[in-house]
Amino acid sequence: MPYAQDVDQIASILKQNPTWNAINPKHAARMRAQNKFKTGLDIAKYTAKIMREDMAAYDADSSKYTQSLGCWHGFIGQQKMISIKKHFGTTKRRYLYLSGWMVAALRSEFGPLPDQSMHEKTSVSSLIEELYTFLRQADAWELNHLFRALEEAENAGDTAKAEELIKQIDNHETHVVPIIADIDAGFGNAEATYLLAKKMIEAGACCIQIENQVSDEKQCGHQDGKVTVPHADFLAKINAVRLAFLELGVDDGVIVARTDSLGAGLTKQIAVTNEPGDLGDQYNSFLDGEYIDDASQIENGDVVIKSNGKLLKPKRLASGLFCFKPGSGEDRVVLDCITSLQNGADMLWIETEKPHVGQIAGMVNRIKEVVPDAKLVYNNSPSFNWTLNFRQQVFDAWKEEGKDVSAYDRANLMSAEYDNTELGQLADEWCRNFQRDASREAGVFHHLITLPTYHTVALSTDNLAKGYFGDEGMLAYVAGVQRQEIRQGIATVKHQDMAGSNIGDDHKEFFAGEAALKAGGKDNTMNQFG
């Protein structure tokens, strides 16, 4: 509702309640405007609609892909979206990613943990709620400055300025954007998945990403030892997430089905199959083992199944896990993806071991033969050595073209000596264009970096500590941080304001009038920053 209309409506309510005469309708309308979303479900419904519109826009034009960065704290997510609005003027097609890896490493009461679903499951929904609390506060902070300017214009009798500010207030773009939230492998059985999905949706999640690993054997997608489950088990969890969305009224909630099959060589279970060629039989067809002719070849404890019309003795490890055939990963990925899309998932996530457009496209094109509008969420992972990967890709391409590569040592291409070479510069250009190329050629709708802010915090802290505890002393902070904040227009230089001091002062005045004890007077040192 437009601000002026809201003021009039509240004024009408106040007239009907004479004991509320101390309330200024402008103050109440202002507080409403600064709190656009009342619940997490309001957020989930709003952002689901945005995401569906973005998916349709991508289907029509692959250059309209979306992006996000993983954020492990509400403040980091808030500052990211404030920065995006400052530099690009809009948050359109920019999301947040909630990384299970960072929840495990940074948000568990057990302390830092590996990405193996050992952290408290409620940490995930709590982080979603925290992220949206900070994004809503960013709305309140930005609008508070506009309302203060409006009050000044009105007091000065500047009608034109006041009208322009009201227009900005009415057309304010929220910092609240979709979050793609990682539920790992569901933290248990399908019922456990459903219960956690509900918590995540109630906190504001419109999009949940779930992977086809075994819950109690879950590994980071870039570690060894990954164990997948038969399709029926995974589809039950997709159904659980869909029912959670529908129960809570988020009818267009988005499910991303992730497959780790490319790097997973193990399964915990042999799939149930009722007839040749069914889904269970297809899953089992990838099992490694040996065909046998009669029962004399079965040893104590062996498992034998019928596959391809013959008796197969699957290879089983001491752990009880069964092995897949070497080299079957891509075929399993394609089957996983087609099956997920045909059974309720909206998008795919293929976890790969390197950033290679050709590799991704090779799998996606096979999937699109069956599901033409298949779309990916792709992990631009910090686990890849991006510099080395792209330099080696350029090296290999040149070698195949017959170009002389004798000046380069392929195994040592990470060396700084190659930074300004033709190969190094072309590799950087390939890296720069990776997201555009993958979205155009390999069906990637959404590009994310899972844990970039884990690394940025470590890097910036190292730089500050090195200088501050060394010869630079206080200059390390002043030159490296505060001076840069001032010159780059980073709002956190006025950290009291960013933390809500001015909002609180205005509220005190709303509540107590001239008796309000405010913090933002002439003696507030924040005034040194203009």
Automatic annotation (TrEMBL):
MF terms (GO), sorted A to Z: isocitrate lyase activity; metal ion binding
Active site: C220 (proton acceptor)
Pfam family, one: ICL
Any one biological process term the GO annotation gives: carboxylic acid metabolic process
Cofactor (UniProt): Mg(2+)
Keyword Lyase: yes
Keyword terms, alphabetized: Lyase, Magnesium, Metal-binding
Sequence positions that bind Mg(2+): D182
Cofactor note: Can also use Mn(2+) ion.
Transmembrane segment boundaries: none
Catalytic activity: D-threo-isocitrate = glyoxylate + succinate
The protein's name in its UniProt record: Isocitrate lyase
Taxonomic path: Bacteria, Pseudomonadati, Pseudomonadota, Gammaproteobacteria, Pseudomonadales
